[in-house]
Amino acid sequence: MQGSSFGRSSVAGLPAGSGSALPALLLVGLFFIVPVVALLLRSVTDPEPGLQNYAALFGSGTYVRVFLNTFLVASVVTAVTILVAFPVAWMLAIMPPAKGSIVFGIIILSMWTNLLTRTYAWMVLLQRTGVINRALMGLGIIHEPLPLINNLAGVTIGMVYIMLPFMILPLVGTLRAIDPMTLRAAALCGASPFEAFRRILLPLSLPGVAAGGLMVFVMSLGYFVTPALLGGTSNMMLAEMIAQTVQSLLNWGLGSAAAFVLLVVTMALYAIQLRLVGAKRAGGGI
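Now predict its structure.
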């Protein structure tokens, strides 16, 4: 019976055991590869065959500014998220399991809340007559309301709050895998807390930082709801531009070209991260 099953897989031209993966491959092909191919074809055929959509995309100063602003916002959000998430992840890593589970549950619970609801909540908090400005004025820290909405500050605050769990989760796993005795050994050797962090904790946590940072950066590149509600026209991001191009201008070719460029950039960043992680593991194995 084994010989007959082997013969059937050989006739089919598929490796043994690949039949169980066939539904998943069909699902990926139907819902990812086919739409991507259709997107690419539309970007070079609508309204007529050629690369005029890409020429218009990169030849217009307005579109180029939207591209640059998208990468600027994604970079700022990623950097701030790492700075905020690292101490939280370290606290979770060294906290007693019972308390850590409670805090961890609160962080996960925030991911289950509707995204639109959370964004509207930040609109209420950040407006000129919102809770934050009124509290700061009541404490005498400021004398007039701060512009915390319809600008880069509002987009950054809202997106960092949403992205925090995606940065904390990989960091906690990496930090928990670090042996606490290494930090104690560094302290016994005379290293200051900052030196122990810079020379031991930070290098050992870089895989988690890289994984979380890439996830946050890639998700920030394609974010739509939060930048549209908390940002202004001067802070338009690529996803919002694509939506306006398709829905308002009905320019499917240009919108498809912009979406395909965003997809290529995302896949390139992911490939670079895989290459760097692979090289680091190979170097560690040697």
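Confidence is low (pLDDT under 50) at residues 1-11.
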